[in-house]
Specification:
By secondary structure, this protein is of the alpha/beta class. The protein has 22 helices and 22 strands.
Length: 570
């Protein structure tokens, strides 16, 4: 690769510039995915950042400082600044410099050298968790403080490698079926097997806690079942909602030899505790007032769980973090499409659930046929004059809502439905008034948080069967909804600049299609408003994964559509 075609510029402030037009763009982007975070993605040059957490996750997944530097050197136009090379080496080395291990059954915090021990043990936030010191400089730590000390040390810059081991939990036989009950051959895909092996690590203390990052439609549920088959123990699964709980139950019964009577649903509608129990974050954090304890936290101690699976771990509520801090002796598997949290608590996921153990570029999965090819479009819609006047005098938060609810979006939705006549289309939004108006105009059913579960499941079933072609959904459909034949998503509004929401919504249409057709994702935004500003942030994670948004002005899009179809569509 000649110097002029190399796409990276590494800067001394640990930012990395990536030229999109370079022929080596994709190769460099995929390399950066393992150890850097995308911060900005305008048309021509994307900006990445090396952060302590991105480097620690890279180290935990097996990368070395040298392999990171080699990747940067291979793609960089200019020499990597010496200060950046030093900081990469230092931060990567910090992962594993402090560790937890067992000594005669007791928990010991150990250090690679005396300066590290002195710096950590003298910190005022660390001192309260340290008991007596051993002759070789380690400190004993109370069992109940295992999670808390990991949180504190990560926050002061010393991520703890936890090799203190786990309780086995109550034994429970668990076998995967070679053929599902629905009659299809079943086995783990190669990347799913690699994810399970990375998490399990041969049953040693080097495995047993961590995060698997894969897109929606890539079979994270199957990875959870693969981990269960490795560990053969009673398992607690935390999911996002009742629909997700029941999808887990259906998958377990279909693809494993676990009897339905051994699978418990613990939700607002049932309180079954079985060898495999599936609950929701909502029920776990329910309480009658903010002054009371969380009554359903007793579920964590109701059985001797050997494994806890956190589905969509990026949504883990703060109260569940607190209880998880006391569950560090139990193996923990987090499943997610993105490590991004909009509340900035990625460090707590790292220290309490575990570091990233496995990920794979979305585009690699697409190329191998495991997820659908997706075409992404951002269509910028002008605001009517009366709405523009209201927007001009509104406060910042109201500006976003006014722009998001731009009434001109409704006509574009109708146009897109004609463009995709016969396809399975989800219209997804944030604001209920807007969604109800759209659904009413289309004569389409709508699912919101207030829709009874029986009605939701009936509508989802109708959509899966192809009897229902258009479904309007609120943010309740962002997560863990299995609609494999959905091939078009039209996003009319979203949650400010939420990168994880954008990833989840694209994920609704990424399951491979029987006819091999690509999926289409449309994001309708109001031009020259807060809606457009937040849209750029929303797209960051998907851009990092290799998705390209074609930007359209609505009039341009309609004109090209008419030209392609040979006549007007309205």
């Amino acid at each position: 690769m000649s110097l002029n075609t190399k796409p990276l510029i590494v800067q001394s402030d640990k930012t990395i510039l990536l030229e999109v037009a370079s022929p080596a763009y994709e190769q460099a982007r995929d390399a950066l995915l393992g150890f850097a975070e995308l911060h900005k993605s305008p048309e021509h040059v994307h900006t990445y950042k090396l952060t302590p957490l991105s480097l620690w996750n890279a180290a935990a997944s097996g990368m070395t400082a040298q392999s990171i530097l080699d990747a940067l050197v291979a793609h960089s136009k200019y020499p990597v600044p010496a200060i950046v090379a030093r900081e990469i080496t230092e931060y990567v080395a910090r992962y594993g410099r402090v560790w937890l291990e067992r000594r005669n059954g007791a928990l010991a915090l150990c250090f690679a050298d005396e300066p590290t021990a002195l710096e950590c043990s003298s910190h005022p936030r660390v001192k309260p968790f340290l008991a007596s010191r051993t002759r070789d400089g380690a400190f004993f730590v109370a069992e109940g403080d295992r999670g808390h000390i990991k949180q504190v040390l990560t926050r002061i810059g010393y991520p703890v490698k936890d090799i203190a081991g786990y309780q086995e939990g109550t034994h429970f036989p668990f076998r995967l079926r070679p053929r599902s009950l629905s009659g299809k051959p079943f086995s783990l895909r190669p990347y799913q097997d690699r994810a399970v092996q990375a998490f399990h690590a041969g049953g040693t203390a080097n495995g047993g806690s961590g995060i698997v990052v894969l897109p929606c439609g890539a079979g994270k549920t199957v990875i959870g079942m693969g981990a269960m088959s490795k560990l053969q123990c009673e398992t607690l699964i935390l999911a996002t909602n009742i629909v997700a709980v029941r999808q887990w139950i259906d998958e377990l019964v279909d693809k494993t030899e676990v009897a339905r009577s051994d699978v418990g649903e613990y939700t607002g509608e049932a309180k079954e505790i079985r060898p495999v129990t599936i609950t929701t974050y909502q029920i776990l954090t329910h309480r009658r007032s903010r002054y009371e304890d969380y009554p359903h936290f007793r579920l964590f101690s109701s059985k001797n769980w050997g494994l806890i699976i956190y589905d969509e771990v990026h949504l883990l509520p703060a109260p569940v973090f607190r209880i998880t801090a006391g569950l560090q002796a139990t193996r923990r598997l987090g499943l997610t499409a993105t490590l991004v949290r909009e509340d900035g608590q990625e460090e707590d996921v790292f220290s309490l659930i575990g570091p990233k153990k496995f990920d794979m570029p979305w585009r690699d999965l697409e190329r191998q046929g495991w997820i659908a090819t997706a075409e992404c479009h951002e269509i910028r819609v002008r605001m009517p004059d009366d709405a523009r006047l209201e927007y001009a005098v509104a406060d910042p938060r109201q500006k976003f809502r006014i722009a998001s609810e731009n009434p001109a979006k409704a006509g574009l939705v109708r146009h897109l439905l004609k463009r995709h006549a016969g396809d399975q289309v989800l219209v997804i939004g944030q604001y209920l008034d807007q969604l109800n108006h759209i659904a009413s105009g289309l004569g389409a059913p709508i699912i919101t948080g207030k829709t009874p579960n029986v009605t939701r499941e009936s509508l989802y079933d109708e959509f899966r069967a192809g009897n229902l072609k258009v479904l309007v959904v609120s943010k309740v459909a962002n997560f863990a909804i299995d609609l494999p034949d959905a091939n078009v998503a039209i996003q009319i509004s979203g949650t400010f600049g939420s990168r994880q929401e954008e990833a989840q919504r694209l994920g609704r249409v990424l399951r491979p299609k029987k006819n091999g057709r690509p999926a289409s994702f449309y994001s309708l935004v109001t031009a020259e408003t807060k809606d457009q500003d937040f849209s750029a942030k929303r797209q960051l994670f998907l851009t990092e994964q290799g998705y390209y948004y074609r930007i359209w002005d609505a009039s341009e899009f309609l004109t090209e559509d008419v030209a392609e179809s040979g006549g007007p569509t309205d």
